[in-house]
Design brief:
The chain has 265 residues and is mostly helical. It has a domain of 119 residues. The chain is 74% helix and 0% strand. It contains nine helices and no strands.
């Protein structure tokens, strides 16, 4: 009587060869490229900040003259830290386009052609609007707000503005203004994904104008002229948002109509 042959043991896996790492190398290469992008961006910011150090005296003099007119520092390192903060912000603003270029060179090849046609112009427009918001804040909004707030003082309540607080106020105001100036792109994006429509925006345009003037009144608790100065660019941005929403909505409807025609027998 013959016995059944024993079960064959599980086959041993062949030893790994260098070729097995081919599927891993692209991911590691992407990490290396990302590391280079971050490193080059930080180096560029550092170099620009060092170069901008020579401008910090003029920038601080201009900024103080157009806001409080006088500022103090209460710690021995206060003046140095103020100039360091200004040079760092200037460095970031100067090399922001280069940083965007480096990020785009890393992300762009991985996008589809239709995505590149949308993302690249959108980011360029976002940077442009952000710089416009910064200029409006530094030249108009922040000096106006500081003068209004300082004006609440009395003969026995004189302002003594610490330079670090003043810089934080100015830079945060610039950041907020730069983000507010993204309104056309934000509304355009919501229209592009179908959450908003021009009909809805035009339906509530009166409510939007009232909201804009309320925001201006809150940010500038002063005379009507100050409110108009702040409300004017917001109204322009809202008008641009309506135009952009109409253009995007028409493009979506045209694309949808072409798609339906292609599906027809």
């Amino acid at each position: 009587m013959s016995s059944s042959p024993p079960n064959d043991p599980l086959p041993l896996r062949p030893p790994r060869s260098p070729d097995d790492d081919d599927a891993v190398m692209p991911f590691l290469e992407h990490l290396e490229q990302l590391r280079k992008v971050i490193l080059h961006s930080l180096v560029a910011i550092g170099v620009a900040a060092v170069i901008s150090w020579s401008l910090t005296d003029r920038v601080l003099t201009w900024l103080i003259a157009h806001t409080t007119g006088h500022a103090i520092f209460t710690r021995p390192e206060g003046a140095f830290m103020a100039r360091f903060k200004v040079s760092l912000v200037l460095g970031v603003l100067i090399v922001a386009p280069y940083v965007f270029y480096r990020i785009w060179s890393f992300v762009g090849p991985g996008l589809l052609a239709k995505e590149r046609k949308i993302v690249f112009p959108g980011v360029v427009a976002s940077l442009t609007l952000f710089y416009c918001g910064l200029l409006f804040s530094f030249l108009v909004m922040t000096p106006l707000m500081v003068r209004v707030l300082v004006g609440f003082g009395t003969p026995t309540l004189a302002p003594q503005t610490e330079i670090q607080f003043l810089l934080d106020f100015v830079f945060m105001g610039g950041l907020a203004s730069g983000l507010i100036f993204q309104l056309p792109l934000f509304i355009g994006f919501l229209t592009w994904i179908g959450l908003l429509s021009p009909a809805l925006l035009f339906k509530f345009w009166r409510h939007s104008i009232v909201a804009i003037f309320i925001i201006a009144a809150i940010l500038t608790p002063a005379d009507p002229i100050s409110q108009l100065v702040l409300a004017a660019p917001l109204l322009v941005l809202y008008g641009l948002s309506l135009i952009l929403a109409v253009v995007i909505h028409k493009a979506r409807r045209k694309k949808q109509a072409l798609r339906e025609q292609a599906l027809e027998p």
